[in-house]
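Ticket #4471: structure output looks truncated?

Reporter: J.K.
Steps to reproduce: submitted the chain below (215 residues) through the standard prediction queue, then opened the result file.
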Amino acid sequence: MQPIQVLIFDDHAEMRKMYALMLSTETDMICIGAYSNCMDAVKQVDKHKPDVILMDIEMPGKSGIDAVKEIKTAYPDMKIIMQTIFSDDDKIFNSICNGASGYILKNSPLSDFTNAIRQVCNGGAPMSPGIALRVIERFRKEVKPVNLPETQFNLTDKELEILNLLVSGLSYKLIADKINKSYHTVDSHIRKIYEKLHVRSATEAVRKAIDHRIL
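Returned output as attached by the reporter:
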């Protein structure tokens, strides 16, 4: 099986080296390129054809937020994980609106980065727990709920339990620990939840759960 090919954009040389080293220790992923800015991001994506991009949000010349928009215009299905030392609400939402697939803080454990890469390749939308809570609170403030019966989605009790934990900002691993099931079992349930809610990411699932008062 071909390893997940990861392209890195980060203006800090030490961070680029750290990410490349981190990826080199994994058997299922590999760093195929690392750049200090995203001025020519689309050309570099076209050159390397990555599966996943790790994109710093603050870079000289052009921000990661702007680069995401350009990349997603050229490659709508590209998986992009934003990473930064800041958990600024506006930057989070601008990144998501421009097409980011996930958002992780730079001070997260290295295992969170590799898990996020795997998760986004499996259709998930990884977010550091603190960021997930900010997203949920923002949705709750901005989304006008509509009264539609939850039965229309035909979610099982277990799926409702897992969706509730997802809305609470828990990662797949924490959900698995909470319900005493394997990571793969949780992943399977969440895929079914996405299918029933007609969404493609955790962010969309959370928004729909709040919008439709499913929980």
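Triage note (M.O.): checked the attachment and the full token line is present. The chain has a mean pLDDT of 84.
Status: closed, working as intended.
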